[in-house]
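Internal tracking record. Fields below are filled automatically when a chain is submitted to the structure queue. Please do not edit lines marked as system-generated. If the sequence contains nonstandard residues, flag them in the REMARKS field before resubmitting.
Queue: standard
Priority: normal
Entity type: single polypeptide chain
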Amino acid sequence: MAEKQVNINIKKLLNDYGISLRELSRLADIRHATLSELANNKRKSIHFDHIKRISEALDITDIRKIIEIETIEDEKE
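SYSTEM-GENERATED OUTPUT FOLLOWS
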């Protein structure tokens, strides 16, 4: 069975909306360090409140713009 990985699309959002990590931090009222860790896959979890704040800051109505599930193919196959 293929493994699944959850990705937080912070870098893509920054690019799509033309803003910096620091600006998103200010708009969403989330610590810059927290967003940096999420953007660089250093965190294994995200708080629902952070998803809500990011969606409000960027006027996002589709959670799939923030989070995606990726299938990791097994190299043995």
